[in-house]
C-alpha cells in the first residue's frame, strides 16, 4: 500500500467516526441514553455495587469524565469534546464486549462515602459490613471508642480495614490476606487514607501468621462461593481473582478454618462476624451446635453471622 493510499484510508476511518456514534452523541444526556441501551442490549450483569443498567451507566459515564458521581443534574446538558467521546465509547464497548466491571475500567470503587483504588488484583469492594460499621457495629459493640485491637481477615483491597479504622478510632487494625498482589494494592489504599500508623498489613493464610495475637473484634468477608455457584457466575465475576471467590465444594473451606481458630484469637467477650452471602442454610447445617446470631441490614438479611468467643467453645 502506498503512503498516499494509507493516508486516504486513515482519513476515511476518521470520517466514519465523525459520522458514527461519536459525532451524534454530544451531551452527557446523549451518552447516558446510549450507554443504557448498549448495556441492555448487550445483557451485562450489574453485580458490583449498582442496582441496574441505568446506575451502571451513570457511574461509568461520570467516572470516565472525572465528574462527581453524586451530581448528575448540572452536567446532563454539558457538551463532551471529541477526545473525551473516544474514551467514553471505548469504556462502554469494553464493558459490554469484554464484560469488564466498571470499577476496573475506572480504577476505583466506593463503599458509602469511601473511595478505594481497585484493579484486577482484588475483588471489587462490596460488603454488608460497610453499613454495619457505620455506627461502630452497634448494638453488638457498646463503646466503639473502647475497642483496642481489631482484625480484618481476607482484607483484599483493604477497604474494610479502612472502614474499621474510622469506626473504632482508638483501635490498632490488623489486615490479613494470603495474596501478595492484594496486599500491595491494600498498601496503596491505606497510604491514601493516611492510616499507615494504624493499619498493619500481614500476609497470612487465615490465622497462620497471627500466632498468639488476640483481638476484640474479628471481621471477615472471606471467599464463600460454592463450586456449583462458581460454575454459574456471570462473566463479570471471572475478571476477579478466583482465590477471593471460590472456597471449596460447599463454599465453607475458609469459614471452617476461621471458626476453628477464632476462639484462640479473641479476647474475652470478643466478637467474630463473617459475611457468607446466601449460604445461611449451608453454614447452619455444617455447624449445628453453634448459636449463630444473624444480622440484618438494608442490603439484605442473614448474609452475616456473629458469634462471641464464649459461644465458640
Automatic annotation (TrEMBL):
It catalyses: L-glutaminyl-[ribosomal protein uL3] + S-adenosyl-L-methionine = N(5)-methyl-L-glutaminyl-[ribosomal protein uL3] + S-adenosyl-L-homocysteine + H(+). It is an enzyme of class 2 (transferase). CDD domains: AdoMet_MTases. Pfam families: MTS. InterPro entries: DNA_methylase_N6_adenine_CS, HemK-like, Ribosome_uL3_MTase, SAM-dependent_MTases_sf, Small_mtfrase_dom. GO terms for cellular component: cytosol; ribosome. Coiled coil: none annotated. Its EC number is 2.1.1.298. Residues 147-230 form the Methyltransferase small domain. One of its GO terms (molecular function) is protein-glutamine N-methyltransferase activity. The keyword Flavoprotein does not apply. Gene3D superfamilies: Vaccinia Virus protein VP39. Methylates ribosomal protein uL3 on a specific glutamine residue. Belongs to the protein N5-glutamine methyltransferase family. PrmB subfamily. PANTHER family: 50S RIBOSOMAL PROTEIN L3 GLUTAMINE METHYLTRANSFERASE, RIBOSOMAL PROTEIN UL3 GLUTAMINE METHYLTRANSFERASE. This is Ribosomal protein uL3 glutamine methyltransferase. The gene is prmB.
Amino acid at each position: 500500500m502506498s503512503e498516499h493510499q494509507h493516508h486516504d484510508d486513515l482519513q476515511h476511518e476518521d470520517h466514519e467516526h465523525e459520522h458514527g456514534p461519536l459525532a451524534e452523541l454530544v451531551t452527557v444526556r446523549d451518552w447516558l441514553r446510549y450507554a443504557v441501551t448498549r448495556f441492555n442490549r448487550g445483557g451485562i450483569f450489574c453485580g458490583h455495587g449498582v442496582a441496574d443498567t441505568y446506575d451502571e451507566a451513570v457511574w461509568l459515564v461520570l467516572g470516565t469524565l472525572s465528574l462527581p458521581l453524586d451530581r448528575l443534574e448540572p452536567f446532563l446538558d454539558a457538551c463532551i469534546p471529541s477526545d473525551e467521546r473516544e474514551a467514553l465509547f471505548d469504556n462502554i464497548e469494553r464493558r459490554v464486549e469484554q464484560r469488564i466491571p466498571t470499577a476496573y475500567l475506572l480504577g476505583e470503587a466506593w463503599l458509602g462515602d469511601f473511595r478505594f483504588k481497585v484493579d484486577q488484583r482484588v475483588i471489587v469492594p462490596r460488603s454488608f459490613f460497610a453499613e454495619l460499621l457505620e455506627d461502630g457495629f452497634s448494638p453488638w459493640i457498646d463503646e466503639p471508642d473502647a475497642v483496642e485491637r481489631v482484625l480484618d481477615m481476607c482484607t483484599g483491597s483493604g477497604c474494610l480495614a479502612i472502614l474499621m479504622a474510622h469506626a473504632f478510632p482508638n483501635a490498632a487494625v490488623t489486615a490479613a490476606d494470603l495474596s501478595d498482589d492484594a496486599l500491595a494494592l491494600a498498601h496503596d489504599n491505606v497510604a491514601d487514607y493516611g492510616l499507615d500508623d494504624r493499619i498493619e498489613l500481614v500476609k497470612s493464610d487465615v490465622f497462620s501468621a497471627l500466632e498468639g495475637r488476640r483481638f476484640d473484634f474479628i471481621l471477615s468477608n472471606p471467599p464463600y462461593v460454592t463450586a456449583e455457584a462458581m460454575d454459574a457466575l456471570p462473566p463479570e465475576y471471572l475478571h476477579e481473582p478466583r482465590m477471593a471467590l471460590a472456597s471449596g465444594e460447599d463454599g465453607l473451606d475458609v469459614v471452617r478454618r476461621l471458626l476453628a481458630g477464632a476462639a484462640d484469637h479473641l479476647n474475652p467477650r470478643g466478637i467474630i462476624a463473617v459475611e457468607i452471602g446466601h449460604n445461611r442454610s449451608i453454614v447452619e447445617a455444617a455447624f449445628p451446635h453453634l448459636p449463630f446470631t444473624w444480622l440484618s441490614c438494608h442490603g439484605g438479611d442473614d448474609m452475616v453471622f456473629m458469634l462471641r468467643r464464649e459461644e465458640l467453645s
